[in-house]
Amino acid sequence: MTHATPLSRRSLLKAGAAFAAAPILAPLAAAAQTSAPLTLRAGKSSTALRPAPYGLTDVWSYNGSTPGPEIRVKQGERVRIMASNALDEPTTIHWHGIRTPNAMDGVGGLTQAPIEKGGEFLYEFDALDAGTFWYHPHQRSFEQVGRGLYGPLIVEEADPVQVDREVTWMLDDWRMTNEGQLDDSFGSRHDAAHGGRIGNTVTINGEIPDRIAVQSGERIRLRLINAANARIFGLQFGGLSPVVIAMDGQPVTPHTPPDEVVVLGPAMRVDLILDMSGKAGDTTIVSDIFYEELEYELVKLAYGPTALRDAAPDWPMTLTPNPLSEPDIAAATRHQIVFNGGMMGQMMMGADRGAMMEQIRQGSMWFINGKAAMDHLAAPLLSLPLGSSHIFEMENSTGWPHPIHFHGHSFRVIARNGRPTPHQEWQDTVMMAPEERVEIAFVADNPGDWMFHCHILEHQAAGMMGFVRVE
Ligand code: C2O
Ligand code: CU
């Protein structure tokens, strides 16, 4: 893709150079879940997104920090969170990728009334699946998430894979002004019709780190979460071979991704095993190479003076699968879902442009089966009988990539362009390249109304969303 706003590589590097600490590997404030609910208070704060000499940036955040606190529970435990709203507008919290009861899904206007300014809402659900998840508002997400409202939600396995250290990197991409504040253009029609709000400042856990200390021979489990509105990451770990052990929280056969590049669309998560195979004193550069002409260095891994061990440990990497219902592929009902819209050159892309014109006039730019959000939110896109198996045959008839997210369920990605996928991975958000066809399969086993949308938040806001009813 060549349509991104150029990332200000120089400002990233300059900013990074002054910053030699390594706070990124330290866990975020962990909050044990016992009987009293943890409070997540959405409000305004300011933070050093860029290190000195830059000043603070005004953001919206949970409990005064972006990302918000890392919530950690054990699989099977009950999560209880009191959401409180100190913003000037209504909000909600959605637990991305977690299979919750419908009333706890946090979609304003669909599963609950939005939490008004000054209001509270108690979220309560059991953590059925272990894995890497996250939370964010589902109310004007393009601005609320874009201003910094999000945090990690980690559900620990009873028998995790053995590693020396566990690290969470929540990646974000901010569009900042020269004055170091967030650019106000949230919801711009140009962004919505193109690749979304691509920014110019990439952070790891709300900071721009220069280097992160590692040890030769060390094994790290790296939990990557893409919290950006629109940026897709393609991470390359210098000479290291990352091994993917989970995608969107769900275990997958451990494998090295094609070209050793870890691709992460908005909202997606990948758990990696990284064996630090460099020598003591080495430096490894982690870079983002997704947008070819705009490669930049994300961070350096700096090896300490001593080695932890001489060779990578031979500890197993396979995680225990979560209790997901296996779809019956042979008996599954197939549904065609076609995505249209967006700009290519001067053209609005659509199979039936005439029928879409009225919706375009009303502000929609993206369509699912020829209709935009205003229709899809009035009635479900599909109604699926509880307990039945389904295959969505999805087709991206646009010139843009889209990370398509389905709430309340995980699905298997069974085929791309008619060919079975090598890992038949479980996901909750699947990247579709332009013109790509992707088949996903799942059991509709969670009753309720579940959002189905593009997680480029500007695309979602401009019509690329609907909901699926399971009853
Ligand atoms: Cu991450 Cu519908 O959301
Ligand atoms: Cu999209």
TrEMBL record:
GO terms for cellular component: outer membrane-bounded periplasmic space. The keyword Oxidoreductase applies. GO terms for biological process: cell division. It comes from the Bacteria. Residues 57-158, 166-282, 358-471 form the Plastocyanin-like domain. Keywords: Capsid protein, Cell cycle, Cell division, Metal-binding, Oxidoreductase, Signal, Virion. GO terms for molecular function: copper ion binding; oxidoreductase activity. Residues 1-32 form the signal peptide. Transmembrane segments: none annotated. The keyword Lyase does not apply. This is Multicopper oxidase with three cupredoxin domains (Includes cell division protein FtsP and spore coat protein CotA).
